Amino acid sequence: MSYNVAIDGPAGAGKSTVARAVARRMNLIYVDTGAMYRAMALFMIREGVDPNDAAAISEKCKGADITIGYENGEQVVYLNGENVNAFLRTEEVGRMASVTSAQPAVRKKLVELQQALAAKSDCVMDGRDIATCVLPNAQVKIYLTASSKVRAKRRFDELTEKGISCDLAQIQADIEDRDYRDMHRETSPLRQDKDAVPVDSSDLTAEQVIERILEICGQSERS
Ligand code: DC
């Protein structure tokens, strides 16, 4: 049986930074499931699908073949054979992903892919439903949170550093909207699994969070 670490939590809690570092230090592969939902959202945007049309999303997702690979240790997402990593991190794609990921047909397709990956490789997988739905038997389950104010400030700093002008209050409002959608959708809403260890990163540096998670992993059995 493979060794799996599940990290769930809301947008902007620092999951991907921390999950990538934990994977590297434990010599596991890192699976970023949000990137898969983003690739699906990119497909819907390119196909001109109306985000309010649930039936169209369910039907269209059959035409999206999403796979992942690794180049220089980094996860690469392929959408119908094309490396789409460069297109996944925009606000537009993030917003669309929050809507399209609520569709059961989309989730079924991507969860199957995630389960197959975790069955064949020891990995750290991050997302919203990893502990509750994708990997209920994961050896380690972490629920990583931070206040919406702190998450908005981190995103604001990130965008400002890239020279992108943005509004802090708007970013916080977007984050809270996304949290609400992720936590209240009918299929696999974001919630803390009963076995998950909560880690609040609001007042911690990334390094402190990484060390805390490594410590939690160290207390679990790795066969
Ligand atoms: O973590 P992220 O911002 O890259 O995720 C993009 C969207 O995909 C987000 O709105 C939540 C959704 N998502 C999900 O529903 N389930 C996952 N396992 C991962 C992400």
Fold blueprint:
Elements lengths: L3 E5 L6 H12 L2 E4 H14 L7 H7 L5 E6 L2 E6 L2 E2 L7 H10 L3 H17 L2 E5 L2 H5 L5 E6 L2 H14 L6 H17 L12 E4 L5 H13 L5
The chain binds 2'-deoxycytidine-5'-monophosphate (DC).
2'-deoxycytidine-5'-monophosphate (DC) binds next to α2, α4 and α8.
Notes on the protein architecture:
49% of the residues lie in helices and 17% in strands. The N and C termini lie close together (8 Å). The model has no long low-confidence stretch (mean pLDDT 94). The protein has 223 residues and is of the alpha/beta class. The chain is built from nine helices and eight strands. Bound molecules: 2'-deoxycytidine-5'-monophosphate. The site of 2'-deoxycytidine-5'-monophosphate (DC) has 14 residues, from helix 2, helix 4 and helix 8. 2'-deoxycytidine-5'-monophosphate binds next to helix 2, helix 4 and helix 8.
Throw out a few tags for this protein:
three-stranded antiparallel sheet; 223 residues; alpha/beta; five-stranded parallel sheet; Rossmann fold; binds 2'-deoxycytidine-5'-monophosphate; 49% helix; 9 helices
In a few lines, what is going on in this structure?
This protein is of the alpha/beta class. It has helices spanning 15-26, 33-46, 54-60, 91-100, 104-120, 130-134, 148-161, 168-184, 206-218; strands at residues 4-8, 29-32, 66-71, 74-79, 82-83, 123-127, 140-145, 197-200.
Q: Mind telling me the CATH class?
A: Alpha Beta
Bound molecules: 2'-deoxycytidine-5'-monophosphate
Instruction: Identify the overall geometry.
Output: globular
The helical percent reads 40-55%
The total count of strands amounts to 8
| Second rung of CATH, namely the architecture | 3-Layer(aba) Sandwich
**Nearest-angstrom radius of gyration?**
17 Å
C-alpha termini separation: 8 Å
Report the mean per-residue pLDDT as an integer.
94
Widest sheet, order of strands: 2-6-1-7-8
The third-level CATH topology is Rossmann fold
Biggest β-sheet description:
5 strands, parallel
Low-confidence parts, pLDDT < 50 over ≥5 residues?
none
Number of domains in the coordinates? 1
Q: Tell me the β content.
A: 15-25%
Order of helices and strands: EHEHHEEEHHEHEHHEH
Discrete helix count: 9
Name the CATH homologous superfamily.
P-loop containing nucleotide triphosphate hydrolases
Oligomeric description of these chains: single chain
Given helix and strand content, the structural type is: alpha/beta
